[in-house]
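This follows on from our talk about sequence and fold. Please put the record directly below this note.
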Amino acid sequence: MKVVLTIAGSDSSGGAGIQADLKTFEAFGVFGTSAVTVLTAQNTMGVQGIVPMDAFFVKNQIESVFEDFDVAAIKIGMLFNKEIIEMVRDVIKNLNIPIVLDPVSISKAGSPLLEESAIEEMRKLFEYAALITPNHFEAYKLFGYKHGDTKSLQEIQNLDIPVLVKHHAVELEERQFSVDQLYFRHQKRAFQTPLVQTSNLHGTGCSFSSAIAANLALGHTLEEAITIAKQFINNALESAPDIGHGPGPINHKKGGEYVKIT
């Protein structure tokens, strides 16, 4: 059984962060381990409180996992502050395994999840990533990216690391699709699934990046891993349990059924 590590924040509502990552790993049949960076008081309506972990304790958690397990891939999510990012970088800089970096800085609801003083430090992690997976808010904050603006693509396309900008809706032949754009070395590839009309989007970004990490651990190529993860999210959205008073969580277990038929 492949082992995957998530380095991310805890979501008390269970739909995003560490909790979503571990559910995703389970859906793909890999063994999930974790290093908690931040505790959040959070639900489907927003983030009510954030308590960061001591940076040295984050390092202790990561090193503890590596002392006991042969880790095949890492997903990095919410890191929150400069001290934690510096410590994570120090631990991962000499590793030779795929790392999926979800540069969590702004939630879909607009809640800030990264201190302003840590943005430059976040950019220093890019060189260690096999893939960076920002949402549109994060892509703009980190790269100045705006969908449809050719000039704003330059910084992303000049990177030596693939960047997957997550989710925009596109209408083709009177059908709507959810499209993610992969940019790498002046090339672009689109990954699409039918758009699921739902407000239950809590944790989709976390789950998508952890699904990619799980599939890289399983030996898939990057494009294969993205394709499988995209279908996983589509299935999980279609079967979302519709709980909570805000944008609810997805159905990780149902999403994983895609793996069983491929």
